[in-house]
Design goal:
By secondary structure, the chain is an alpha/beta fold. Helix content is about 40%, strand content about 15%. Helix 5 runs parallel beside helix 6. The structure holds uridine-5'-diphosphate-xylopyranose (UDX) (2 copies).
């Protein structure tokens, strides 16, 4: 019977996932540990480090009851029956596999730490997205240690999407758990199934072998990203042919074999997972001698980069070939709505492109702090670039950002930017003329903007 869970990594995945487990399993003590003291302090406050609708409410139900946040990593690992590894696994920036392979140094460090401090049997669960066969590495590190206890490694990838994480955790399409086929592996698997069965119907808890589970996570993200790149590819063609990409998406999405989700054309996908996981897959294929398979998946990223470039380029072209010294209002900076996460956000690329063209950017995002935007754009804490220029202003509202601007560009589909939420007439009045509107998320009705007087364009829209 599982009594204590420890999760290493209090990030976007570890925090919300453990909060939900604690809420649903009052009989299990759940502690989330992290080496980052400020992050742990924030988890203990009203001001959580992760913005996610419904998260604070969920944390409040369990915090102090059976949900704890701590920096005492060794002690909490030692006490746990199950240890989740939920640390970050960024794309390697150095050495072999740079730019593609996952950097597993944090995961390896966790495995070594678990091996060092454990004095009882444990189930180790990979929650981080990892290359296939990482469980073997973890196991080798642990078996190679002096520790005599029994350790089982399970793979339990996370499928939550930011912005809807709490709903995804409450009511998942499926929970996937991979384990070894040995009796010990199966017993560990059963123990984790029992935890989820406290609120997830049994038929939605899928169990597989370890390698299928690891590969399924990469495959799921690759398929999702591929859909976005596919519709974005079609959006480029729509712009040449006067077809409307939203109409095409609806028409194909009503075919039940295709389905309607993940067909929204955009400035390109962002987020911490899609690009990293596809590169991961590409690297795996290359290292197993499958170059054609690798090239097939890499094209999803090439298409995504092209989509970001097309959007940025269109802004410059439309503004008569130069944006130098022109104010451009950037509405939204997060990689999608309802999150404060900016990792791999397409807005970063587009802004950087415009900055190299010496545009003056007025950026507003309802949840992303100025310090984060400066960091993402490679500016100092006062928003200055390496040459001491201040080309970026962070604004407190969309209206403020648009004042005096030559163009506005929607980068994130926040509801607050919709046509009935903002006074676009007033905004138009405050802008330089001709006033351009570039909707990178297709959330604005272009005909209404055009009626007001805007030179308006969307993605894949006539
Ligand atoms: C997760 C997954 O782990 C990643 O593999 C997946 O692809 C995306 O989601 P996420 O929760 O978003 O990552 O990462 P992040 O918000 O960066 O949180 C990771 C936390 O782990 C950080 O707070 C970091 O301080 C902590 N950490 C890292 C440790 O506590 N110990 C370490 O050794 C390394
Ligand atoms: C994704 C997966 O959905 C989730 O299952 C996995 O665990 C982590 O990675 P996340 O990155 O949080 O989740 O968000 P997601 O909703 O998948 O969106 C990713 C990106 O694709 C965003 O930038 C989003 O704006 C974009 N997107 C999504 C589109 O451009 N069009 C779409 O139709 C859907």
């Amino acid at each position: 019977m599982v009594k204590k869970i420890c999760c290493i990594g209090a990030g976007y995945v570890g925090g919300p996932t453990m909060a939900k487990i604690a809420e649903k399993c009052p009989h299990i003590d759940v502690t989330v540990v992290d080496i980052n003291e400020a992050r742990i302090a924030a988890w203990q406050s009203e001001n959580l480090p992760v913005y996610e609708p419904g998260l604070l409410e969920c944390v409040k139900v369990a915090r102090g009851r059976n949900l704890f946040f701590s920096t005492e990593v060794d002690e909490k690992i030692a006490a746990a029956d199950i240890v989740f590894i939920s640390v970050n696994t960024p794309t390697k920036t150095y050495g072999v596999g740079a730019g593609k392979a996952s950097d597993l140094k944090w995961v390896e460090a966790c495995a070594r730490q678990i091996a060092k401090v454990s004095t009882s049997d444990k189930i180790i669960v990979e929650k981080s997205t990892l290359p296939v066969r990482t469980a073997e590495t973890i196991r080798k590190i642990i078996v190679g240690s002096e520790n005599e206890n029994s350790m089982q490694v399970l793979s339990n990838p996370e499928f939550l999407a930011e912005g809807t994480a709490m709903a995804d955790l409450e009511n998942p399409d499926r929970v996937l758990i991979g384990g070894e086929t040995t009796p010990e592996g199966q017993a560990a698997l059963k123990a984790l199934v029992e935890v989820y069965a406290n609120w997830v119907p049994r038929e939605r808890i899928l169990t597989t072998n370890l390698w299928s589970s690891e590969l399924s996570k990469l495959t799921a993200n690759a398929f999702l990203a591929q859909r976005v790149s596919s519709i974005n590819a079609i959006s480029a063609l729509c712009e040449e042919t006067e077809a409307d990409v939203d109409e095409v998406a609806h028409a194909i999405g009503t075919d039940s074999r295709i389905g309607s989700k993940f067909l929204k054309a955009s400035i390109g996908f962002g987020g911490s997972c899609f690009q990293k996981d596809i590169y991961n897959l590409v690297y795996l294929c290359e290292s197993f001698g499958l170059p054609e398979v690798a090239a097939y998946w890499e094209q999803v990223i090439i298409m995504n980069d092209h989509q970001k470039y097309r959007f940025a380029q269109r802004i410059v072209k439309s503004l008569f070939g130069t944006v130098s010294s022109k104010r451009i209002a950037v509405l939204g900076f997060a990689f999608k709505k309802d999150t404060n996460d900016t990792r791999e956000s397409s807005a970063i690329y587009v802004c950087q492109y415009l900055l190299t063209e010496l545009a003056e950017l007025a950026i507003y995002d309802p949840k992303v702090p100025a310090s984060q935007i400066y960091r993402d754009l490679g500016l100092d804490e006062n928003g200055k670039d390496a040459e001491g220029r201040s080309l970026v202003t962070i604004c407190d509202s969309a209206e403020e950002a648009c004042e005096g601007a030559h163009a506005l560009a929607v980068m994130t589909e926040w509801d607050a930017f919709k046509i009935d939420q903002l006074d676009y007439k007033k905004i138009y009045g405050s802008m330089e003329k001709p006033a351009f509107a570039f909707d990178g998320r297709n959330i604005l009705e272009l005909d209404k903007l055009r009626e007001i007087g805007f030179e308006a364009s969307g993605i894949g829209k006539p």
